[in-house]
Amino acid sequence: MSADIVLHSLAALAYLLLSLSIWRPIVQQKTIKQTGSIRSVCVFSTLVLHGIAVHWAIVHADHIRLNWSQGLSITVWLGMIVFWIESRLNKIDGLLLLLLPIASLICLLAALFPSSANSLVIPSQTHLFKIHLLISLFAYSLIAIAAIQAFLMTALDQYLHKPINFQENPSLTTRVLEAQPPLLQQERILFKLIWIGFGVLSLSIVTGIMVSLNKTGQFLPMDHKTIFTLLSWLVFSILLAGRGLWGWRGRLALRWTLTGFALLMLAYTGTRFIFDVVVNKGI
């Protein structure tokens, strides 16, 4: 068994244990304790383990090797780093109720589906493409975290508009929603993520143009990946313009966020997983 499989399995277990520790009080109808530094250290330690697993799986002596499961793994890892940094500034432990199980599942998939002969291989000398790939994954991670938060905010908004008697008989779903940060705080964090994600996505498009010009002489290849990426960029640019000019917020902003993420998902996945498309297209 290779080192990256073992490390990804350990990371999946660590995320699962952290997930159980935060889900337990919810199931027992207790309030999530803000354990502060203890939980933060545990999450950071798991991120270090996950990062080592990603390095072992992807980085080799003379090339970088990626498949769809490892692409998802590095995306989740980058997204969790963003969450950890944001959690140092705001009390957002409630978001871990979804993020930790997702991270555990992705690490398990990376362990079950390691690199194969069909994986994308990037020679060490193709520095520009590696930079473009890393920037693209970072943009995808930021927007994925924003989309998860938008889903939670949508559910929380619907819950807050329910009749009072519904809230007096809390189900497990209700207790999960009550553990989330206030909507206004989440909205501030959401638009911070979208602004940063939009900036990184713009940089990804610029580096993609440079890669395309260097490889094919084309400004941009008009394939599904390019079209959906540009559509996603357009959606987020309209959303941010609407926020700045007309104060868009609430359900309208959430719908635009989820639409932009859906388009970006189509850009990176299409009918197959992320890097299978990249391999077949040779891009």
Q: How big a fraction of the residues is strand?
A: under 5%
**Class by alpha and beta content:** mainly alpha
Oligomer: single chain
| Spatial strand arrangement across the major sheet | 1-2
The poorly predicted ranges are 270-283
Task: Report how far the terminal alpha carbons are from each other.
Answer: 31 Å
Overall radius of gyration? 20 Å
Count every helix, treating DSSP H or I runs of 4 or more residues as helices: 11
What is the helix/strand order?
HHEHHEHHHHHHH
User: What is the count of β-strands?
Assistant: 2
Mean pLDDT: 81
Domain Cytochrome c assembly protein: 71-274
GO molecular function, one term: heme binding
Transmembrane segments: 6-26, 38-58, 64-85, 92-113, 133-156, 193-214, 226-246, 253-275
Keywords: Membrane, Transmembrane, Transmembrane helix
